[in-house]
Design goal:
Layout (H helix, E strand, L loop, with lengths): L1 E6 L7 H13 L5 E3 L13 H7 L6 H13 L2 E9 L3 E9 L2 E7 L20 E4 L2 E5 L8 H9 L4 E5 L7 H12 L2 E5 L4 E4 L2 E4 L5 E3 L5 E4 L6 E6 L28
Helix pairs in contact: 4-5
């Protein structure tokens, strides 16, 4: 399958323009799975919970509808981050395919000011079986908690789609370890640019990447330029957790000795 990470430069509060930028980048390269950044249509730096709620939309809202039209025309799938209006306001990601909305993940681990804006996720870590393989989702700061990727891997995820708005420098290198320890692929889609709102200035680090189950960085974009990177992946490489003839990473776990 062909996997694409899409690195955008959204402008806060300009969802139509931000969506158009993302679609233009996706149209430039064919892929089976595109991964877009966290909160890619709205921007990230909400000043308060009321503003986050004002920009939120239902999971089957206009962004899902627009991307469903794109995926139907391309016979593709897209994972993207958005502010979800459900029974509360969530920082969510959605998976859309040719038939429309397939599934939603709600960010479990909220970062910094997000804790004042969103409710913590309550859907667990679902995985979705697509024609080309099994996809799991996590959002940005979830990477800091190794249980996130491990839970997805144990559930059968072969690739982790990871919409992000990264401001700390650690994640791109850390995802090498997440993939290595779980023998999965990952696709981290970050944004670039800066937002200075409500007394909080944030700069986003770019470096969107695709990583293999062996910890190989298959693609990594730059820090300052919007763009798209596409790689051919054989997701069957994520099905074996065997390291050598003696070690299987999942079979060798000593669960009775762990405190989880």
């Amino acid at each position: 399958m062909r996997c694409a990470v899409v690195q955008t430069n959204p402008v806060f509060g300009q969802p139509a323009a931000n969506l158009a930028e993302a679609i233009s980048l996706m149209e430039s390269e064919p892929a089976d799975l595109y991964v877009l950044p966290e909160l890619f249509t709205t921007g990230y730096n909400f000043v308060d919970a009321a503003e986050a709620a004002a920009w939120a939309e239902p999971a089957d809202g206009p962004t899902a509808a627009a991307l469903a039209r794109f995926t139907a025309a391309r016979n593709a799938h897209v994972v993207y981050g958005f502010a979800e209006r459900g029974d509360a306001i969530y920082n969510s990601s959605a998976l859309v395919g040719p038939g429309g909305l397939i599934g939603v993940y709600r960010k479990m681990h909220l970062y910094y000011k997000e804790t004042t804006l969103f409710a913590p996720g309550n859907l667990g870590f679902p995985v979705f079986r697509l024609p080309f393989g099994v996809v799991g989702m996590m959002v940005c700061f979830d990477w800091f908690f190794p249980e996130s990727a491990r839970t997805l891997a144990l559930a059968g995820a072969e690739i982790i789609a990871h919409p992000s708005n990264l401001v700390m420098p650690h994640c791109p290198d850390a995802m090498v370890t997440r993939c290595l320890e779980n023998r999965v692929f990952s696709a981290t889609a970050n944004r670039i640019g800066a937002e200075d709102r409500g007394g909080l200035a944030l700069s986003f680090i770019g470096l969107s990447e695709i990583v293999s189950p062996k910890g190989e960085i298959l693609a990594r974009l730059g820090r300052d330029t919007a763009g798209i990177a596409v790689r051919e992946l054989d997701l069957t490489a994520a099905r074996s957790k065997r390291l050598n003839e003696y070690n299987d990473l999942f079979a060798d776990r000593r669960r009775s000795s762990y405190q989880l």
